[in-house]
Amino acid sequence: MISKPHFFIASFLAILFSVQSASTESRPNIVLVMVDDMGWSSIGCYGGMVETPTIDRLAKNGVRFNQFYNGARCCPTRATLMTGLHPHQVGIGHMTLPVKSAVDPKPGDATSAFALLEADRSEVPASYQGWLNTDIPTLPEMLKSAGYATYMTGKWHLASEQSETWPLQRGFDRFYGHLAGTSHFFVPANLHRGNQRIQAEGERYYITDAISKQAIEYLKVHDRTKDEVPFFLYLAYNAPHFPLQCMPEDYEKYKGRYLEGWDILRVQRLAKQKRMGIVPESTQLAPRTENIPAWDSLRAEKQVEMDAIMATYAAMIDRVDQNLGKLVSHLEASGELDNTLILFLSDNGGEAESGAFGRFNYAELGKYGSGGNKYGKGWASLSNTPFREYKHYAHQGGVQSPLIAHWPKGISSKLNSSILEQPSYLPDLVETCLDIGTASRPELKNGKSVPKGEGVSLVKTLKGSSDRIHEKAFFIEHEGNRIARDGNWKLVSYYDNSWELYDLDEDRSESNDLAERRPEIVKRMDQAYSKWAKRSGVVDWNIAKDYNVYDAIKRKASQ
Question: What local confidence, expressed as pLDDT, does residue 554 receive?
């Protein structure tokens, strides 16, 4: 017979254990999927022509955010996504430093430029140092402290030469991918497993397939060894970032689909978006910029070439969706899908860094092992329909990202297939993950104070109990391109230009500048932006552009 004291102790421990177990079991897994340089309207559920049945299924059984903002470029977006802070607050006010171990020296390279560059950066402000500040906790570090297993595959692009800035040292248990900002898809030169640089293995290697397969392998091992522990998986695709390279079978699927050209297809896409409820009926199509020729003015041969380069871009996104299908199938088979929050987004808008036509070798397009290609402004304008501008810029085409959230156990079933119009941005995702993971941001790291997170958890929104996410304005800056977003108002400017003001409830494509008619709103939002920029470490781009590490390398290499 058990004595009463022992009975009560045993009962208490049993209850405590069951509560702890229930708490652990109830915490969802988190899968954060980010694609690279994909324009807002490329995928099917945002009006695009690429066949993305898996992503569309996640949207149908989840929610789409229709006014979600990224950081306009690779590094700034990643810096915020991993910390919940603005990129300037964590050392990446512009871009990262190059990583020597991730670069294959080529004849003519001035490798000494790296050492000179590092020496020259002694006077660069910490907000532009070029790597993720090690005194700032990362999302995987915070989730790991709360009991999560943490895995990453794909593109990091937050590192310096020092390995303490690499994924394993920033909170991930396992890592397979590349540290630098871009990678060859067939023969990656900067591939890493953990901290070790490795060579790609296997026939018909393709990095989109490889990082997806490795992610699933991590989860299979997790299921066998840590089934009671929730996991955080960060799957950071390099696709469809240049070099545009795809598998031949995917290329054949899309070849010929874009021969109508960017002018007609943009009109058709906007009409489809209106039918889908993606944009208001009042939305106008942003005009084709002057340096993009009318499609009908191109020779037939040029149109065929342009179709081929866009088919390559589409094929790369298609391949991402194929692999996400395998990941979702694994989660279903393991019984984890319903209690896994899946977030899907893009790091910036479509890129247009190589003129109207891009840069490509037509003879190689669609072939296994092909060289690097870019698709140019003409097609980027289609990818970003109906918006203005591209990657780098603060207008909608540069900073508006698709965001899909899928979590059957956590999202109100009443919201399935819904399109949420509340403005939100990257820091909100970090606060959401911390919220559902019952993780917290420490007050100190390495003996230094840790800033409070800049975002707002989306959990109430996902449960249908919150109409507005941000009660105050939020801000973004990259290369002098600036945003202040407050409710329906968006204040935006190009580098060294005056502010423009748009009512995005009525004017999603930023066609009607209201700055002169509403100077009081401009003044209020400008003052708020200036206060934010000062506390966040933003430096005027006329000065900060001299911190551009890539231009510095070119200058030093030529000396």
Answer: 56
231-236 and 29-35 as β-strands: parallel, antiparallel, unpaired?
Answer: parallel
Distance CA 531, CA 224 (A): 51
- How far apart CA 152 and CA 533 sit, in angstroms, is 31
Gap between the Cα atoms of 423 and 514, Å rounded = 20
Q: How far is it, in rounded angstroms, from Cα 39 to Cα 381?
A: 8
d(CA 493, CA 490): 10
Predicted local distance difference test score (pLDDT) of residue 25: 54
What's the pLDDT score for residue 202? 87
Q: Are 462 and 428 in contact (CB under 8 A)?
A: no
In terms of Cβ atoms closer than 10 Å to its own Cβ (0-12, 13-18, 19+), residue 302 is middle
Lay out the sheet containing 481-486: strands in order across. 474-478, 481-486, 489-493, 500-503
pLDDT value for 365: 80
Domains of the chain, residue spans: 40-106+113-470
Contacts with 190 (C-beta within 8 Å, 6 or more apart), sequence order: 99, 101, 102, 103, 178, 179, 180, 183, 197
Residue pLDDT, tens place only, 132-143: 999 999 999 999
How far is Cα of residue 222 from the mean position of the Cα atoms in its chain? 25
Q: Which two tokens stand for residue 287?
A: 């005009």
Do 345 and 403 meet the contact criterion of CB atoms below 8 Å apart? yes
Question: In Å, how far are 77, 219, 233, 317, 499 from 320, measured between CA atoms?
Answer: 20, 18, 16, 5, 38
CB–CB of 492/504 below 8 Å? Answer: no
Q: Strand 424-425 relative to strand 174-178: parallel, antiparallel, unpaired?
A: unpaired
* Closest to 328 in 3D by CA, of 408, 445, 436: 408
Cα–Cα distance for residue pair 223/119, rounded to 1 Å = 47
Q: How far apart are CA 439 and CA 452, in angstroms?
A: 14
Model confidence, pTM: 0.92
383: nearest Cα among 490, 273, 505: 273
Q: φ, ψ for residue 113 (rounded to 5)?
A: -60, -30
- Count the Cβ atoms, other than its own, within 10 Å of residue 378: 27
| CATH code 3.10.330.20 for 40-106+113-470 | no
Contact between 515 and 500 (Cβ < 8 Å): yes
- DSSP, collapsed to helix, strand or coil, labels residue 10 as helix
pLDDT at residue number 65:
98
CB 246 within 8 A of CB 319: yes
Rounded distance between C-alpha atoms, residue 152 and residue 167, angstroms = 8
| pLDDT beneath 70, residues of the chain | 1-25, 98-122, 549-559
Instruction: Yes or no: say if 96 and 159 are a contact pair by the CB < 8 Å rule.
Output: yes
CB atoms within 10 A of CB 523: 11
pLDDT digits (tens, 9 = 90+) for 364-388: 887 887 777 899 999 999 999 999 9
